[in-house]
Amino acid sequence: MCGFAGIIGESQPEVIVAMTRSLAHRGPNGEGYYSSPGVTLGHRRLSVIDLATGQQPMTTADGRYTLIFNGEIYNYRELRRELESRGARFHTRSDTEVLLEAYALWGKAALCKLRGMFAFAVWDSKERRLFAARDRLGVKPFYYAEARGTLLFASEIKGLLAHPGIERELSLPALDDFLTYLYVPAPRTIFQGICELPPAHWLEWQAGTTPLACISHQFGVTAEGRGFNPAEKRHFDSIPSHALGSSSRRTAERVKVQEGRRRLVTAGLKPRPSGRAGEKSVGGALDRRAAGFAWNAIGTWNSGRRSARSKTARKN
Description:
Layout: E1 3-8, H1 13-21, E2 30-36, E3 39-45, E4 58-59, E5 65-73, H2 76-85, H3 95-106, E6 116-124, E7 129-134, E8 143-147, E9 150-154, H4 157-161, H5 172-181, E10 194-196, E11 201-206, E12 216-218, H6 230-238, H7 246-268, H8 288-315
Antiparallel strand pairs: 1-3, 1-9, 2-3, 4-5, 5-6, 6-7, 7-11, 8-9, 8-10, 11-12
Helix pairs in contact: 2-3, 7-8
């Protein structure tokens, strides 16, 4: 794993060093910084791919985009070949440079092409814009906050707490979430004013706006693990199953079944009124019928798989 931190809105080189070094356990193999008017970035690296190069922060040849990245892009070799066919030139063998060039070419649409676990931030020095995103399952963390009119972000909360403008104040709504669900759902954290970017979300911050205008947006997932926009999903749903090939038909059926299960479980997990006199509500009550139906459906499917494997083993 790696760790990163950033301050957007003003340059604070000494502070970014303290924030980044608080994450030294995440990246023992290297340390790097980027600073320009209104932005400072820091990165701690654990070398996994391309040990010799691939240091971060990494900037494009024209100096416009600068990236800090934590994670691994599993399909980076395929993306590299596609980018090279479009004229991109690479100087390292790292997936970091592939991600950087992918964003430089496709912008936020590059998220649709990524397969892997990631949390990253890209600074666009021309548009004075920060773009950040987190992988679909939320394997890699991303936290952000506002302090004294600046936007702060880091791989861990302790990176944000290293900034002198962040107070260690307990969030009562988050405490209520913890006592109800035994964890704090994103975007809340246990600290007041510190937010977690939810899985499968991205955010942007534009110079001239307040950090609080930094609202996260969700990007979707298909059965293949790629992102899609609503228009693409409507087009996919409108295709009749008989018009699809056998492989595509099975994929369409799996998507519909999984979507149905997701709706059932989501509906079952919604907080519901207790119905008891004198009680306003009970958060996190689980609709046992909805959850049980989904669990049984998944269990039946798994049982069928085990039975098929057992029959195959006996034949062999």
